[in-house]
């Protein structure tokens, strides 16, 4: 089995896109993350959904979970409003790891190793023509476990 057999069309965003729109895309399509592309449509990063949360959740709640408990429910339910006016670029991880990108001929083991190494729930699949789509962790696990 190769990447081309597992890939699906996958939404992408640019670094200048509003992060709240990226959050809506993640939630609306039940995605583990998004592919961030440059002006030529080529992947430059993967934005895991957890990074969107990291940008939205106040730092003091991340540093001390007990402080999150003291925020009343009304305000706790509205924490994503802090994303207004912010961009996808602000949500990207600051530590630049290896980019989880592969070619259509990669095997499932190569894809799994890349996901594990980069801690990414998806891998972008790129050919000479450009971005073809992505292989998600879910698709990979479904295929491997049914074989």
Q: Could you please describe the fold and organization of this structure?
A:
There is one protein chain. The chain has helices spanning 3-6, 19-28, 49-56, 59-63, 65-69, 73-76, 88-91, 108-118, 137-146; strands at residues 12-14, 33-37, 43-48, 101-102, 122-127, 130-136. The protein has 147 residues and is α/β, with parallel strands linked by helices. It has a single domain (3-146), classed as CBS-domain (Roll). It starts with a helix and ends with a helix. 28% of the residues are buried.
Short description:
The chain is α/β, with parallel strands linked by helices and 147 residues long.
Indicate the proportion of strand residues.
Answer: 15-25%
Overall geometry comes to globular
Which secondary-structure class do the elements indicate? alpha/beta
Number of helices: 9
**Sheet having the most strands:** 3 strands, mixed
Q: What's the structural blueprint in terms of helices and strands?
A:
Layout: H1 3-6, E1 12-14, H2 19-28, E2 33-37, E3 43-48, H3 49-56, H4 59-63, H5 65-69, H6 73-76, H7 88-91, E4 101-102, H8 108-118, E5 122-127, E6 130-136, H9 137-146
Parallel strand pairs: 1-2, 4-5
Antiparallel strand pairs: 2-3, 5-6
Keywords, separated by commas or semicolons:
147 residues; alpha/beta; CBS-domain; three-stranded mixed sheet; 9 helices; 20% strand
